Amino acid sequence: MTLDKREKNHIEKLPTHIPGFELISLGGLPCGRTTLISGTAGSAKTVFASQFLAEGIRQGNEGGVFVTFEEGTNDIRRNMLGFGWDIQQWEKEGKWAFVDASPQPGTEPIVIGEYDLGALLARIENAVRRVDARRVSLDSLGAIFTQFTDNNTLRRELFRVVSALKAMGVTAVITAERTEEYGDIARYGFEEFVADNVVILRNVMEDEKRRRTVEILKFRGTNHQKGEFPFTIMPDQGLVIIPLSAIELKQKSTDIRITSGNRELDQMCGGGFFRDSVVLVSGATGTGKTLMVTSFMAGGAMNDERCLLFAFEESREQLFRNAVGWGVDFEQMEREGKLRVVCEYPETTGIEDHLIRMKQTIEEFEPNRVAVDSLSALERVSTMKGFREFVISLTSFIKHRELAGLFTSTTPTLLGGTSITEAHISTTTDSIILLRYVEIYGEMRRGITVLKMRGSMHDKEIREFIIDGGGMHIGKPFRNISGILSGNFVHVAPAEMDRINSLFTEDEEDGKEM
Amino acid sequence: MNKYILRLYITGQTPKSERAIENLRRICEDELDGQYQMVIIDVLERPQLAEDEKILATPTLIKELPPPLRRIIGDLSDTEKVLLGLELRRST
């Protein structure tokens, strides 16, 4: 195929301006064609259909026509105002036109003989001309079947409507009802053949939690991302899709080091964290994770960096009081504009909403450092799949913006153990630091070790640390004890330690290998 | 006898439109004895009128007077049903 021919056959895409949709659709909806949006009741079909028009007007100043078969126009105007879409105003400005095909009150019409939907078509064409529309939404197909009973006529007429839309050169979405989340594409079994493209919206119940996803099932003659992508509905935005695999893994990598806020830990890490890396700190409750977050923030502020802390476990007052106890003045840092602390209960909203709010806060505050304390708290409000997606998405977002990230994760057991958080996050983070309780002859001490440090040498020892009014102080390695990470401590006599050490000469190089 | 006001919405000069006009004209002449006013509206020429009445299908016949308002969709090929629909016959 020659290049010219390829270009001729190339299907252009129209950006929907629905956040995230361009990433999963590789550019938007196929231009000049019709896309079926299918979903069960409450799957946000009408929101999608409205947002497609609203964003066309807001972002591209493109006129839109909304054909409603179901809800009255007044209901739609009122419902969509909640998303900040002032349809009435747009109607006045000649950018939005309704074609009201909803059932009219009064007696049902009697059908005698043959008919077609010529009047509907004429009305759509009229409206498209009137507002110079480039986008048309029809919502929802199922409702017209309750007004007319002759399915064969309807099927023929709907094909006619779709080909007329194509002839008008508009890009259209048609919504259709489904009866189940995983089953026939749409209720009447032929809707998918009317349109060139099919997008499915789902609202699945999983572990007593609702999870919304969007999937592009087919785009005739053009590419798209495969699979389901989570989305949420934000009060003042409408649909926001969270693309996962669409996030490109092409973050630049730097070798610029930044301080962890603790000199000894910097040494253990081979000179500090990397400026654009994500570090996971794992430990049982009370091992000092929040302290590490506090030092990380303080270390940033000291070097005139902007720091952002998302706290899901403790209140603002608690955090600030604790920080003072370790010699860090959060209040002062906030006054100087170097710190923002966002405290939220994980249960206030779904995990997708948390993610979007966090991203928005990051975009708005433009920090150099971001800390999340703790990720595990968010595990509670989400399904496993949802949580995994959250972690991947947040990590990619932070790395994409070349920020330093520090996440904490609480292990469920006091001694040893890992958490679900770690299982999901360990491969996406650059460094992992473990904080563990160590029992020595009936006394609880604390140990720290750098488990992984991508692209750098680091200390492999498990070192003891203490916490006092000045924060964390890291000391000597635990010498005569093993099994700390598993929580099964075995005390080893010093003589035995020396003997074992002498067996492995490369231990001399300890801390210098990758 | 009350005067009948009937409006027939069609789309262009299609066979269906012609049939509907012919059927309606015959029924009026046979049954209404000149006491009627019949308006034919081509929605391709006057789409706004279809918009105002929220008409989807063509042909659509609206009986505006005498009340109650009635809508009949189709080419009116069954005269008996049309008479029932316009309440010119009682159902038996």
Commentary on this structure:
The complex is a heterodimer of chains A (514) and B (92). Helices cover 34% and strands 27% of the residues of chain A. Chain A is α/β, with parallel strands linked by helices and 514 residues long. With 92 residues, chain B is of the alpha+beta class. Chain B has one domain (4-85): Glutaredoxin, CATH 3.40.30.10. Helix content of chain B is 34%, strand content 26%. Chain B has helices at residues 15-31, 47-53, 79-85, and strands spanning 4-10, 36-42, 60-65, 70-73. A four-stranded mixed β-sheet of chain B has the order 2-1-3-4, with helices on both faces. The longest helix of chain B is centred in the first third of the chain and has 17 residues, at 15-31. Chain B starts with a strand and ends in a 7-residue tail after the last helix. The A-B interface holds A 99-101, 104, 106-107, 109-123, 125-127, 144, 147-148 and B 9-12, 14, 16, 19-20, 23, 43-44, 47-48, 50-51, 54-60, 68-78, 81-82, 85. Strand 6 of chain A pairs parallel with strand 4 (70-73) of chain B.
Could you write a compact summary of the structure shown?
The complex is a heterodimer of chains A (514) and B (92). Chain A is of the alpha/beta class and 514 residues long.
Oligomer: heterodimer
How are the strands of the largest sheet of chain A arranged? 5-4-7-8-3-9-10-11-12
Strand order in the sheet with the most strands of chain B: 2-1-3-4
What's the total helix number of chain A? 18
Strand content of chain B: 25-35%
Distance between the termini of chain A: 49 Å
In helices, the fraction of residues of chain A equals: 25-40%
How would you summarize the topology of this molecule?
The complex is a heterodimer of chains A (514) and B (92).
Chain A: H1 3-9, E1 13-14, H2 21-24, E2 29-30, E3 34-39, H3 45-60, E4 63-68, H4 73-81, H5 87-92, E5 96-100, E6 110-111, H6 118-131, E7 133-139, H7 141-147, H8 151-168, E8 171-177, H9 191-194, E9 197-206, E10 209-219, E11 228-234, E12 238-241, E13 257-258, H10 263-268, E14 273-274, E15 278-283, H11 289-302, E16 307-311, H12 316-325, H13 330-335, E17 339-343, H14 351-365, E18 369-373, H15 376-379, H16 384-400, E19 404-410, H17 420-425, E20 431-440, E21 443-453, E22 463-468, E23 471-477, E24 481-482, E25 490-491, H18 494-503
Parallel strand pairs in A: 3-8, 3-9, 4-5, 4-7, 7-8, 15-19, 15-20, 16-17, 16-18, 18-19
Antiparallel strand pairs in A: 1-2, 9-10, 10-11, 11-12, 13-14, 20-21, 21-22, 22-23, 24-25
Helix pairs in contact in A: 6-8, 14-16
Chain B: E1 4-10, H1 15-31, E2 36-42, H2 47-53, E3 60-65, E4 70-73, H3 79-85
Parallel strand pairs in B: 1-2
Antiparallel strand pairs in B: 1-3, 3-4
